[in-house]
Design goal:
Oligomer: heterodimer
Order of helices and strands of chain A: HHH
Radius of gyration of chain A: 21 Å
Number of strands of chain B: 2
Distance between the termini of chain B: 29 Å
Structural class of chain B: mainly alpha
Shape of chain B: globular
Strand content of chain B: under 5%
Distance between the termini of chain A: 67 Å
Number of helices of chain B: 16
Helix content of chain B: over 70%
Order of helices and strands of chain B: HHHHHEEHHHHHHHHHHH
Radius of gyration of chain B: 23 Å
Number of helices of chain A: 3
Largest interface: A-B, 19 and 26 residues
Chain lengths: 60, 476
């Protein structure tokens, strides 16, 4: 086993329920972030989002 | 039908909370300055239990964070939610109840702490009856805010402006964090034992503790920034898309950081590492947000020469950027080994609290006072003086604590040639004296600025009508 493989090796059998819950939440949050970044940064959304910033300038 | 008429808003409760926040800023900084003086000159404890450093320090944190900060958040939330959604509050009566009960809860908190009644949990010192009451009041605040947004005209205001997202994120996160950290078994009217003990207790405590910083003192005040910087600068925020990314990154990321307060303790090592890694990752959205606010002034930087309120808002963003870089660096294990338990932490907290939270609040309060009482400030020159007092006071404070903290850390881990400690703990305390005096001086200057602000606001309110009448006469 190379050093890299050794570093990333995981004893899956010893994972507890808490470990699995933490792992699943972490992975979901990671993908949630990716989806959010995609939704906010896609070029087709630019005009729609950026025009919101002008609306508060005359609210009072 | 007059379609050009300006909408009417419920501003009475906002006026009450705005003045209340300013009063508590003066009280909180006064108590903090006196507590700092007690560390420099312990004789000032006078052997009176109620005003010893141990109690005054906690009264100070509760007054500045929850009284000043909390009232500022309530005032700005009620002010901005109406204007960004074009509606009055869902319930003005409920807002007044919220404001009055919150004030009573704050007074009960500081009184009980003075009497020695405390859970001993940092930023959650209220014993169970007061904690339950505060949680209920906070829920009323959240309820009213969300229903105000829900009651908007969806045709004219289809989109909910980003400052409202930050406010809602703060309200929801603080509700569940405060309630879970406060879970306890009462044994008498003013004593309880926390539900979580040992390592779990520490973990839950700092899950709340750091998120009091992350959501109450950051997300809530970013909501203020995203509304008041564009309004005061009279320019739209630099990038709306960046503000959306900033919001979601903060919501997803901040909840993971708490464990960085517990490096080198009984917690599993990986929890501290995770806390440190996510802390470092948070530099990206934090700096993105700070730049988003600052670049709003692109092409109009000259406004800073003449607009003293804008100076407060932009200086606050500089401190926000600085403290959100410093925090993650201190979370890294190698740096934490030196910085933890030292005054460096106090310096870091105050660069965020004085430089970021207080300054952005002060800018927003000045802006609101002029709008709410429909007048110019009594003295713009006093705002300029306040700005310099606040900035110089903050710099004095944090520089003193940086030097003191790093010196402490180095003294505590210095060994002689025989492998024994080079300094006793008492020697390190003695070496701190000049820096504690300097910190007191910095805090006093900041307090003077708060007094100037209160005077300026009181005079603005007292002379508002007379000055409006004079203006009308001169125009006629």
């Amino acid at each position: 086993m190379s050093m890299l493989e050794q570093y990333f090796s995981t004893d899956w059998a010893s994972m507890t329920t808490h470990d699995w819950a933490g792992l699943i939440v972490t992975v979901l949050v990671f993908f949630g972030m990716l989806i959010t970044f995609y939704l906010a940064l896609r070029p087709s959304k630019r005009k729609e989002l950026e025009e919101q910033k002008y609306k508060i300038l005359n609210d009072d | 039908m007059d379609t050009t008429a300006k909408p009417q808003y419920d501003d009475g409760v906002v006026k009450y909370l705005t003045v209340g926040a300013t009063v508590f800023l003066v009280i909180g900084t006064l108590v903090g300055t006196f507590a700092a003086a007690q560390l420099a000159w312990p004789v000032l404890n006078f052997d009176i239990a109620e005003i010893t450093f141990a109690r005054l320090r906690v009264i100070h944190t509760n007054t500045v964070i929850f009284a000043f900060g909390g009232m500022t958040l309530m005032a700005t939330a009620f002010y901005t939610v109406q204007r960004t959604n074009g509606v009055r509050l869902w319930s003005n009566g409920l807002a007044w109840w919220t404001a009055i009960l919150f004030t009573i809860g704050l007074l009960a908190t500081v009184t009980s702490i003075g009497l020695g009644i405390t859970t001993g949990k940092e930023y959650h010192e209220q014993e169970w009856p007061i904690a339950i009451a505060i949680a209920l009041v906070w829920t009323l605040y959240t309820f009213n805010f969300i229903l105000t947004i829900a009651s908007r005209n969806k045709e004219t205001h289809s989109h909910v402006y980003v400052s409202n997202w930050f406010f809602m994120g703060m309200m929801i996160a603080i509700t569940y964090l405060y309630v879970i950290n406060g879970l306890a078994i009462p044994v008498s009217l003013f004593q309880s034992y926390p539900l979580f003990g040992g390592v779990q207790g520490a973990m839950i405590q700092w899950w709340w503790g750091h998120n009091a910083v992350g959501f109450f003192l950051t997300a809530g005040f970013l909501a203020i920034m995203y509304y008041f910087v564009p309004k005061q600068a009279q320019r739209p925020i630099y990038s709306y898309r960046l503000s959306v990314i900033h919001f979601w990154a903060l919501m997803f990321g901040y909840v993971w950081l708490g464990a960085h307060h517990l490096q080198y303790t009984a917690l599993p090592d990986w929890t501290g590492s995770l806390g440190a890694v996510i802390s470092l990752a948070m530099i990206i959205p934090s700096w993105g947000g700070a730049l988003n606010g600052m670049l709003t002034l692109s092409g109009a930087w000259d406004r800073l020469r003449t607009d003293y309120i804008l100076r407060f808002l932009i200086m606050s963003l500089a401190f926000y950027a600085m403290s959100t870089f410093e925090g993650p660096v201190m979370a890294a294990k190698s740096v934490n080994a030196l910085s933890h338990y030292t005054d460096w932490t106090i310096g870091h907290v105050h660069s965020g609290a004085l430089g970021w939270v207080a300054m952005v609040s002060i800018g927003a309060i000045y802006h609101m006072v002029m709008k709410l009482w429909k007048t110019e400030m009594y003295s713009m020159q006093l705002i300029n003086i306040h700005f310099w007092l606040a900035t110089i006071g903050t710099v004095f404070y944090i520089v003193a604590m940086w030097v003191s903290g790093i010196m402490q850390g180095l003294m505590w881990r210095a060994y002689d040639e025989y492998g024994t400690l080079a300094y006793t703990f008492a020697e390190s305390v003695s070496a701190m004296h000049p820096y504690y005096v300097m910190r007191t001086f910095g805090g006093f200057i900041f307090f003077l600025g708060a007094v100037v602000m209160l005077y300026n606001i009181v005079m603005t309110i007292r002379t508002a009508e007379a000055r409006s009448a004079n203006k009308v006469e001169s125009l006629a």
